[in-house]
Design a protein that fits this description.
Helix content of chain A: 25-40%
Number of strands of chain B: 0
Largest sheet of chain A: 6 strands, mixed
Structural class of chain A: alpha/beta
Strand order of the largest sheet of chain A: 6-7-8-3-9-10
Helix content of chain B: over 70%
Largest sheet of chain B: none
Strand content of chain B: under 5%
Shape of chain A: globular
Number of helices of chain A: 9
Shape of chain B: globular
Number of helices of chain B: 11
Oligomer: heterodimer
Strand content of chain A: 15-25%
Radius of gyration of chain A: 21 Å
């Protein structure tokens, strides 16, 4: 297997002088072609910043990011991104949002009329795969949060990106909808053969989706540990109750707690409750 | 559905009843006050004499021409503002460097009283139509630029970043994301600033005017024709209200997705 994305000594600092903040410290990470990798960690660990830097909407302060060996310079059509919310265009219908890329020069350059037809067929196919056919002509604010994220994913996939970057895409959804979306995104990413880098703060989500889980630690943002997920590639909901799943979940949670620097001081808590009991 | 439910909803019927009551109550109060004769009609003319004045204004004093010229002045001053404020606000709201260059200056000028510019405008532009339009422009433009810039800044970053990751060029982002996204906000801004433009009418018609609603009000003041002052003020209010409602209707027609419910 070849490497799809590689981060070599990537640093990112915001601001300068004494108030500068190191968001990413020397990130070295390779993602294989077709791999589904999840980034997880306490808030402030730089997981979103790393994803946005790979997308090209942030520029690293030092280091290099390559896609298929070629260094990236800004966003490009080979790396599509799905955001947590507010990224859909409310003035366009569902199908209009999905076909948005067809208006862009980057997608229409060197296109033949046959390509245009293929693209039209692809939009229909994506609607079907994502279960959106019935709402094709609806506007985004007529849809539930889950349906809106289906549209966002379909839109990102429209131009057949090699790499799909997802920034907490299901963070605003309820637990039941999220489970449905998990199985959907696994299915679709295999169907599309794309490499997925998925950012989440939900450990269970990270394990269930990822072939590897990259745990990041905050202050400064860095890669702490990379955990291979010892589950079969074909995932199903009951796997969440397997011992290996639960063990990994516990290990990850424990590690996040110890890296977050926000440990609960139990002694202090007890002392406090004792004094308040005396009052 | 109680009367005092915080942010509660009310039925269409109740809305119209309350709106009618809200409009009729002051009218009734005004009628009674003038009918009882407690207040001297020079201070507070009754609704009937104001209504009668509309009639005489129409038959003897070119009411329609006054309305037409005033509307023309307001719309011209406002449209001229919009013509410059829309692209400029788009630039200020899109590029931080343009914002740094122009926003502090605009903030500074917008606090200057438009009325005080009258002598300068007369000196620079003269006393023709241009001067009246100029005053309305000064009163409207600087506020409008800042509001347009604010509208543009309110376009969600995720909408812009999504387009970037889809490979949109800078121009495509402005044309296909920022402009369609900001349009509803702009129509609201244009509606609100149209209201402000009307409030500058009387000031504008202080400049060597011999026609217009604002001029009529100023002239009536000289002859203590309070009923005519009332008449002019109410007419301006009604024309403004009609324009406001037209804008709201346009908003509904042009941006149907904002009014949809799942």
């Amino acid at each position: 297997m070849s490497t799809a994305v590689q981060c070599k000594g990537v640093w990112k600092t915001f601001g300068n002088g004494p108030r500068a903040l190191t968001a990413l410290q020397d990130i070295n990470l390779s993602v294989e072609e077709g791999e589904f990798i999840t980034l997880v960690g306490a808030s402030g660990c730089g997981k979103s910043t790393l994803l946005r830097t790979i997308a090209g909407i942030e520029t690293q302060s030092a280091g290099e990011i390559t896609v298929d060996g070629a260094p990236i310079s800004g966003p490009d059509v080979d790396r599509a991104m799905v955001f947590q919310n507010y990224s859909l265009y409310p003035w366009l219908t569902v199908i209009g949002n999905i076909k948005f890329t067809r208006q862009l020069a980057a997608h229409t350059r060197d296109r033949t009329s046959a390509d245009v037809e293929v693209a039209a067929g692809r939009a229909e196919a994506l609607l079907a795969v994502m279960g959106l056919t019935a709402v094709a002509d609806a506007y985004p604010n007529q849809l539930s949060g889950g349906m809106q994220q289906r549209v966002a994913i379909a839109r990102a996939l429209m131009s057949r990106p090699r790499i799909l970057l997802m920034d907490e895409p299901f963070g605003a959804l309820d637990a039941q909808t999220r489970e449905v979306m998990h199985d959907l995104i696994l299915h679709v990413s295999q169907l599309e053969l794309c490499t997925v880098i998925f950012v989440t703060h939900d450990v269970e989500e990270a394990i269930y989706l990822g072939r590897r889980v990259v745990l990041m630690a905050p202050r400064p943002g860095r890669v702490d540990t990379v955990y291979p997920v010892p589950l079969a590639l074909e995932r199903s909901q009951p796997m969440k109750h397997q011992t290996v799943f639960l063990e990994l979940k516990l290990a990850l949670l424990e590690r996040i707690r110890s890296t977050s620097g926000m440990k609960t001081d139990l002694d202090l808590l007890q002392k406090l409750s004792r004094t308040s009991a005396q009052d | 559905m109680g009367f005092w439910t915080i942010r509660g909803t009310i039925t269409q019927q109740r809305y119209w009843i309350l709106a009618t009551v809200g409009l009729l109550l002051p009218l009734i109060g005004w009628s009674t006050l003038s009918a009882t004769g407690i207040v001297n009609p020079v201070f507070l003319p009754g609704p009937l004499s104001v209504l009668k004045r509309v009639g005489t204004w129409y038959t003897n004093d070119e009411l329609l021409a006054d309305i037409a010229i005033s509307t023309m002045r307001v719309v011209a001053g406002w449209a001229l503002s919009a013509l410059i404020a829309l692209p400029l606000g788009l630039f200020i709201g899109t590029y931080r460097s343009v914002q740094a260059l122009l926003e502090p200056l605009t903030d500074f000028i917008r606090y200057m009283p438009a009325v005080a510019f009258i002598p300068l405008v007369m000196l620079w532009i003269g006393i023709d139509e241009g001067a009246k339009i100029g005053i309305i422009f000064i009163g409207t433009f600087f506020q409008m630029v800042l509001m347009v810039a604010e509208d543009v800044r309110r376009v969600p970053m995720a909408q812009i970043e999504a387009a970037q990751t889809m490979g949109a060029s800078r121009l495509e982002i402005i044309e296909l994301v920022i402009i369609p996204s900001v349009k509803p906000g702009l129509v609201d801004t244009l509606r609100i600033t149209m209201g402000w433009a009307w409030t500058y009418l009387v000031v504008a018609e202080l400049v060597a005017a011999n026609s217009g609603l604002g001029y009529a009000i100023i002239k009536a003041q000289r002859f203590l024709q309070t009923d005519k002052i009332f008449c002019g003020i109410i007419l301006i209010g009604l024309i403004g209200l009609a324009m406001d409602q037209t804008f709201r209707l346009m908003h509904r027609k042009a941006f149907p997705w904002l009014y949809l419910r799942s």
